[in-house]
Amino acid sequence: MEAESVIELYNLLQSNGIEVWIDGGWGIDALLGKQTRPHKDLDIAINHKDKPKLRKLLEERGYKDIARDDTSDWNFVLGDGEREIDVHTFVFDEKGNNIYGAAYPKQSLTGTGAINGESVKCIPPEWVVKFHAGAKYEPKAKDIQDVNAVCDKFGLKPPENYKRS
Fold first, then answer.
1. Residue 9 burial (CB < 10 Å; 0-12/13-18/19+)?
2. 118: helix, coil or strand?
């Protein structure tokens, strides 16, 4: 997915009252302030209550569900034949505790970055590192590159299994 498409989708959602945070590879690049590698999709986090509105907006633009083994009510992928959006939804209770969906703690939704010079909400650097450290999969080369780039820029220590060889 190209940076222009990311900004177009981000602005579409925001202008329709859907608060959105950029996650995944584009979230890393937002923190770094530049695109560091190609991205096949856009990962976003939204409040679960906004899911129907998001689906309507994207379906009107030709997006359809893409079947995956890990599809759920709170994590699904929509595509239009060229672009894919990996949607993660969540619900917080009145005290700010995550009670449903993707396990985003409230404080993990406080970052800001830039894509093509435009400010976007994203996962803050310390949470990017925490999420990768707690991942239940062996990191790929791109994950190691991403985490180390964030750690280098923000003076953070990479997790043991993400240290460069």
1. buried
2. strand
